[in-house]
Amino acid sequence: ICGIQHLERAGNRLTLFDSLYFCIVTFSTVGFGDVTPKIWPSKLLVVIMICVALVVLPIQFEQLAYLWMERQKSGGNYSRYRAQTEKHVVLCVSSLKIDLLMDFLNEFYAHPRLQDYYVVILCPTEMDAQVRRVLQIPMWSQRVIYLQGSALKDQDLLRAKMDDAEACFILSSRCEVDRTAADHQTILRAWAVKDFAPNCPLYVQILKPENKFHIKFADHVVCEEEFKYAMLALNCICPATSTLITLLVHTSRGHTAPWEAFRQLTGTKQTLNRESQQSPEQWQKMYGRCSANEVYHINLEESTFFAEYEGKSFTYASFHAHKKFGVCLIGVRKEDNKNILLNPGPRYIMSSTDICFYINITKEENSAFKKQEKHRKKHESKLSYHGASRLPVHSIIASMGTVAIDLQDTGCRGPSGATLALPAEGGKEGRRPSIAPVLEVADSSSLHTCDLLSDQSEDETTPSDDEVSAGLEYAKGYPPYSPYIGSSPTFCHLLHEKVPFCCLRLDKGCQHNYYEDAKAYGFKNKLIIVAAETAGNGLYNFIVPLRAYYRPKKELNPIVLLLDNPPDMHFLDAICWFPMVYYMVGSIDNLDDLLRCGVTFAANMVVVDKESTMSAEEDYMADAKTIVNVQTLFRLFSSLSIITELTHPANMRFMQFRAKDCYSLALSKLEK
């Protein structure tokens, strides 16, 4: 307005009101033409202003419209008509972070059957700028509805139409400063949802294991600490178990056409394979070759892989399907049962209505089968099973020992002689074969009802003189004391008598022994050291897998807990029954503490992310202290196997960081 009025002093000599009138008429695209600029500077200014307005004004109007719609959504309702005609799920969170939202949306919509579902987010806070930008993307704006409200208010649950929802997900943020308080909020939300909509399936994420028993009514409960420590422990036994689980449960690519998805997946696998072959680690090479495998399911009667094994035992079907087709049968589900049985063992007989869960490069429906020639079959008949010792290693994997899922009904004990007979190997004396013959149907005369617990490891049937002299004669049973209610009972190696609390302290002598460091103990096996801030109840789940009954006694590694803060008495009560478990108060920052706890004799060093550093002003800096500590260990003890927990996956590229190493830089690109 001022520019037109100023420049037209040399032309029409417009008043300020005339200039205002001209601008409104021009930019509203009415253009009466009764007032027009007369000189070229004024005309140039009008041209520039119109060009700017064409760019700026639509953006501003779009933002205004979006804000108005979001305000309507936050304070509005999810339509009852839509709830009854279209399927939706409700996501309840205390605060919505962009990482949590994208992980949930990408995995939820990865399944083809969920493409038509709506996601209604119920959150008590306003969405931040990052979430707002993501929800403006057309792919999400048409599927995701954000409602501001609390799950504890029936009015807000009614707005989200919780009673008509297909499912409700209650999630917690890992970066909470007070994780116990976050669990308390999650528990209240779960109670409120169950009270309002009793028939709505409930999926709950809890952080601390001691709070799990409050929400046993939920259909599915995932306890982060319980799962985390069990995964860290299994990484010590089998390298990169967490990598295997991550590859299985995460979707590799987003929504693409089938051929494009196959091309991208193949390219990703080839890249990972090519990079992993340069690694000196055998497990990295294997993971590179098998990284594209995923879990699929199919009805047994419709399957080419498994149909011929109807009436056979699960172990027989798993063994021979792997040997014939290269697929790994890992579990089954009965038609009338919603629970999946993982590796149910030789007593389970396959039925035509069973749903089989298997690991393969692709689902059976997308596989092509070639008929084998007769001479090939004759050749294979010559390679038939001739005893357990002649089996290749990859076939042995398919017939590993059964995993006890539910041990509450295994109180009875069979006679000591009721075990599965093994084939005699001539007159040789030595290590017995890794597996027994795989039977089509379990032999009731040789398999007793409770042989799962009476089965001995291959080196434990008769203890040697060295074991007796070394004090390796442990008992097997359930730990008599659990640090929290709701822990699953697990059959473990235990001591006949609990160790006095003073003897659990590694770095201080007592009246029972005078050792003050790990070297003085003279352990035969290498140590497993866990560096943690506190001895939380979840740490109990780290010890249990490493002391499980199926672990050979000779292979039990001493466990040393390096804690910043002293453990409380009830935690010591829980661990004092386990053999070779010690603790020490110290810090991973202190080199003397590391040497005293035996870092030079360690097979694995497990570094747990500290709760006090999980939240930072800059989100991705939450792992800074952990990464620097791990890098220090890597520099000082290069042969040490380090297993680390990180809050943000983007920080993986800084583990064992080498600025000029081609292999490390290639891995960094893959991790990005």
UniProtKB/TrEMBL annotation:
SUPFAM superfamilies on file: NAD(P)-binding Rossmann-fold domains, Voltage-gated potassium channels
Identify the GO cellular component terms for this protein: plasma membrane
Q: Does the keyword Transcription regulation apply?
A: no
Instruction: Cite the Pfam families for this sequence.
Output: BK_channel_a (PF03493), Ion_trans_2 (PF07885), Slo-like_RCK (PF22614)
Top-level lineage group: Eukaryota
Location, primary (coarse class): membrane
TM helices/strands, residue ranges: 14-32, 44-69
Q: Which keywords does this chain's UniProt record carry?
A: Ion channel, Ion transport, Membrane, Potassium, Potassium channel, Potassium transport, Transmembrane, Transmembrane helix, Transport
Location in the cell: Cell membrane
Q: What membrane topology is annotated for this entry?
A: Multi-pass membrane protein
Name a GO molecular-function annotation.
Answer: intracellular sodium-activated potassium channel activity
UniProt catalytic activity = K(+)(in) = K(+)(out)
Q: Tell me which residues make up the RCK N-terminal domain.
A: 86-222, 525-665
Q: Which PANTHER family match?
A: CALCIUM-ACTIVATED POTASSIUM CHANNEL ALPHA CHAIN, POTASSIUM CHANNEL SUBFAMILY T MEMBER 2
Q: What is this protein called?
A: KCNT2 protein
This protein's encoding gene: Kcnt2
